[in-house]
Amino acid sequence: MRGRPNEPAFWPHGEPGPAIEYGYNPVVSTTDLTGFNKTIDDYLQTTGKIDFKIPGVEGLKLTGSASLDKSWKRGKNWRTPWTLYSWDKTTLLDDGTPSLTGSVSSPFTDARLSETMANRLGVNLTAMATYDKVINNDHTISLLAGLTRETDKSSGFNAFRRYFLSTLIPELSFGENKEQTIGVNDIFTRARLSYFGRVNYNYQEKYLAEFLWRVDGSYIFPPEKRFGFFPGVSVGWVLSKEEFFKDNVQFVNSLKIRGSWGQMGAEAFANNTLMEYQFFTLMNTGSGVFNDQVVKTLWEANVPNQNFTWEVANNSNVGLDATFMDNKFSFTFDYFYNQRSNVLAQRIASVPESTGIPFVNLPPENIGNLKNSGYEFSLNYQTNINDFTFGAGINGGYAKNKVLFMDEIPGAPDYQRRTGAPTDAWLLYQYDGVFKDMEAINANTLDYSAITGGADLRPGDMKFVDYTGDGIIDGDDQVRMDKNSIPTFTGGLNLNAAYKGFDLTVLMQGATGGLQMIGITESGDIGNYLDWSYQNRWSIDNPSDEFPRLSNRNTAYYQDGNKALNNTYWVRNNNYLRLKNIELGYTINPDILNKIGVKGLRLYMNGINLFTIDKIKIWDPESTNTSGQYYPQAKVINFGLKATL
Amino acid sequence: MKNTNLSEIFRRLKMIKKQSSITSKSTKYTKKLFIMTATALALQSCNTDFLNVTPPNQLSADVVWNDALTAQAYINDIYNGFEQGGFNEQMLASVSDEAMFTHPGRGIDIVNSGSSNPTTLGWVHGTWAWGRMYIYIRYCNVAMQQLNGADNKITNQDMKEKMLGQVHFLRAYYYQQLLRYYGGVPLVDKVYTIDDDMDIARNTYEECVNFIIKDCDEAYKYLNGKSMDKGRATALASLAIKSRVLLYAASDQHDGAKLKGKVSSISHDMLPILAYTSGNQQERYKAAQSAAKAVMDASSGYKLNLTAPVSATEGQNNYKSIAMGGGSKAPNIDPAAASELIYAKYFIADANYTHGLHNGPNGYKNWAGNTPIGLLVDDYQMIDGTTFSWNNVSHKAEPYKNRDPRFYATILYDGAGWKPREKISGNIDPANQIQTGTYDILEGGTVKTIPGIDTRSGSIESWNGSWTGYYYHKFIDPDPNIVDANNFQLVPWPFFRYTEAVLNYVEASIELGETTVARDWLNKIRFRAGMPAITTTDQNQLREIYRHERRIEMAYEEQRYHDVRRWLIAAETVGRKVTYIKVSGKFKPGKTMSAPYRHDNTVYDYTYTPVVDNSQENRSWNNNLYFRPFHRDELNKNSLLKQNPGYTQ
């Protein structure tokens, strides 16, 4: 959705102004004048459960549960043509306003309706046996074993019609069958079976140990590779219950150290979508035209893999929990080291195109290995002195992942390899300032022709580092960064205080260690420039060796996705510190209120996102979109009153 | 989101009920009931058959070849490699001296400036892209294996032969695409599984030609005498592809010595991959000549039996009718011209294409797209067969008068009549003429200069205006009822039309010294267009005349890009700088006009100024571009793949 800054949104008499293309004028396309797009999902979720305590065996319980999840989905997309108005910039009406020409500006001239419906049923049956026993008041044993059987089926259809008799009734019956389409959607069948168990033991709640296991089976995997066994153990030691500790370390009220290791299985995904039925060779349907008729076609949906199984997450963790100084302080700390092995991925990077296997048709293979490690902590303090209560807490977490092995383009140079870098780390040309003037260009000895598309260098063009040192700036000078868009450290700080009727809470949050690409917007003839880019640009009057020249529609090589847009100039760290929430309240003494029949009354004011310190400056550092098309975080100030009657 | 309230209530109700009935009465009966239930669940849990899910919406490949209908559906899809034919938004014409693409960011400037390289390939299109072609070649290989194998259960021999014929044709076509863009390529005739060794070397040019010719011959063998649905491969289409491949094979670009003479950097090892290093070029022309003749003998084309030129009007209609290929209902368009089409991509209302939107004038809310450049416009002869020249004073005064009728069926120029403008842009141009100049206009007693509606300063979507001052309309349906911004057209894309075979025959004949027959066939093409006869039979003269004729007749048909390479004349043709036209209309003494403007020679003195303009594209030829580069990733993935000359391995 774009609009030109020098075109009016509305003309003086209220007619909508022109669009850039497809008739997309925001003042019209955001309204119901263009139709609507509605989706309604109805869910009915029911769970039934039977607990059966076995008579005669103390502590043994059998549980059976069944849940049925039923959902109905209905979508309706109604598109009606709309009219925009343009002016020849010459002719005026008698009242001095422009003489306008209106025309249907939508990319279609008759209304269209598409509808989708889908129907889904998920069934989950679980049976479980548990046995709890305490021996001599010291040994607590808890056993569990069970199984879960899960099926999930969905089917649906869609229909499309145009040439509506009237646009007043958005129902298919008013469209013509000419050029109608009917198809299926949301169609899948899924089935999973899991067996699981747990043995839990503790001695006087001082020594804790647990062993867990699962056997998971999924329809995702070929029959011989279908089941995976995933065990886990954890142990804990509550030091503060030991006599030697109690006697010697009195300022600590409780202290527990713990450790765990466990495995979990994961199914295959591509672009957040389950990769189903990949051990079959399957055909999708498509269409073609012969003899002036649409005919069905069949095309290879995938290349099968008979040999893949569960991806495994190996998670280990050590941590401690403590409270001290009369429980005024509490502290937890965890260090984790997670390694994903047998990662299911497609071999996109190394299968040559001459095989004729399109990337999307490659099956999942167990070919990756990633690690993710870091720590998390929180420290809280809470106290009250007479009428004054005060609390403070900080928390934070650091995590960094690293690709230990993944499918790579075989000959890629080391500094471009994904292995060793975080997942989804950028591959970027290295920004090296800007050619300030002709003098700088004349002094340049590097060959930029591989990325400029034949245009001569001009003042204001961006300079790049010749990483390979061969005198030529080309694709080999892109470098894999050691960061991705996810911050490695996120943390928060909260404060609360209360005195008599007054209360105050403050929440701050921040993050560091990530990068975000910014500033790439449709601009020039077909949209506006970012104010920041405009203010900070090379120009004849304001030559810069830091900020590049702006180009119409991102044609300059350092703004063109076909050329060298992927460079470090457009990428900034998305570190920030933000006052997320601050709230001050006053609760009026209930004694006074009771007389007027009110139980409670609190007045408050709060502010959300009042200030942010960041490096991106142009827009929200939490935005994940390169062109800022992201719902912005609002700065909000509320005044409120809350009464309890 | 879970509907917790409801499920919680439900759960509690059940619990109350069950617990009251089970736990309160611990009778033998309830115990029995429980044991039965538990046993049932336990048994159920051991049964894992339900995990064998059958994919609900996809057909298993095994059964495709059990039935002729499903097998045919598989073959139907292989045609999708043709995509929309040449009707992509970016046309191959814009990577030649026919046109310039209007919008930035499509990588076309990278190719035209000669800076295409393995990391920045520039514009590549799906109808010939490396990976795309091999996908469809793979499908062909699957189909051939299955149809020739013993496992298929297709008993209808006639249908099986039709399928085999189509598959051989399709594989020939897709390899032909690869061969003419990249030179010799790996000839894959197996179906890769993920466990295979995927490294494969390029075959020699000669091996590729032979492989394609063999597929054409097989296709002909299977399809000859069979009636095929419109849009499917035919025996004639197989002959046509064979004609094209053999003419290309005979051309200078694929003669080892001549190619090496032009591009001296080609290594000894690389040369056979790009060209013949043995044999005789004359023999190859002979093969090309007879392959072209075979097409000509098997069909008759459209109005190619004339002995004298038709009128200019008829010539224009003939040419536009051929371009419409039977897909237009406009007046003066002859649907019978569809007989020119030997192999085409057809469109119907359900699966159509917005070619008019992509290429029409911005003043009709279209996007200009592939605009003709001055270099093409200037190459259209005068109607009397003489050459147009800006140095000729009367030509310069009225450059769009008395030109080859094909000019009027191809180019929209300043003052040319076009579709009713009010159907899309309001009543701002009652004369319905293209406006690409600047004009005097009288407003409130003073003379102002205004930009034309179809310029980049016009009042309607100016950012979509032509830079060159021209628009193209050869394949745009002139039917006034089709508003290009909103409606689709049904004009087919001609992959191969009869005239190409004739031109192929003419070219081979000229090179073989058979100039009389070549001249006579050239004249038949010219007569149909309303152009006078050529008289010379001098080989060198005729070669130049022929090359010019092919450029004009086949404009915008994905020929020129290849022709200038085949003839090794790219530097002096597509390497030239782009030229625009500047048009200005000034009032004649004593004459004026108020808005709305219309083209009128009695009111205006028009001046036409051709200019070289490098601001959008700075074109420059680089000998590397005789063959397109492979992407560095593909080279890295396939260690046996050798890069084309001039590019980094």
Jot down its keywords:
heterodimer; A: 645 residues; mainly beta; 18-stranded antiparallel sheet; two-stranded antiparallel ribbon; 30 strands; 5% helix; B: 649 residues; alpha+beta; Serine Threonine Protein Phosphatase 5, Tetratricopeptide repeat; four-stranded mixed sheet; 23 helices; 8% strand; disordered N terminus
Could you explain the architecture of this structure?
The complex is a heterodimer of chains A (645) and B (649). Chain A is mostly beta strands and 645 residues long. Chain A has six helices and 30 strands. Chain A has a domain at 424-644. In chain A, the strands form seven sheets. Chain A has an 18-stranded antiparallel beta sheet that branches. In chain A, β23 and β24 (502-512) form a beta hairpin. Chain B has 649 residues and is an alpha+beta fold. Helices cover 40% and strands 8% of the residues of chain B. Chain B has helices at residues 4-22, 28-46, 61-64, 68-78, 108-112, 130-148, 157-182, 205-223, 235-250, 256-262, 271-274, 281-298, 312-324, 355-359, 374-377, 393-397, 405-408, 422-425, 498-511, 515-529, 539-553, 560-566, 632-637; strands at 59-60, 99-101, 341-345, 370-372, 411-412, 438-443, 446-451, 471-472, 493-497, 579-587, 604-612. In chain B, a hairpin with a 2-residue loop joins β6 and β7 (446-451). Chain B is globular. Classes of the chains: A mainly beta (645), B alpha+beta (649). Chains A and B meet through β1, β2, β3, β4 and β6 of A and α1, α2, β1, α3 and α4 of B.
Compute the number of helices of chain B: 23
Radius of gyration of chain A: 32 Å
CATH topology annotation of the domain at 61-280 in chain B: Serine Threonine Protein Phosphatase 5, Tetratricopeptide repeat
Range of helix content of chain B: 25-40%
Tell me the helix content of chain A. Answer: under 10%
Largest sheet of chain A, if any? Answer: 18 strands, antiparallel
Distance between the termini of chain B: 55 Å
Alpha plus pi helix count of chain A: 6
Identify the strand order in the major beta sheet of chain B. 7-6-10-11
Q: Examine the secondary-structure arrangement and name the CATH architecture of the domain at 61-280 in chain B.
A: Alpha Horseshoe
Shape of chain B: globular
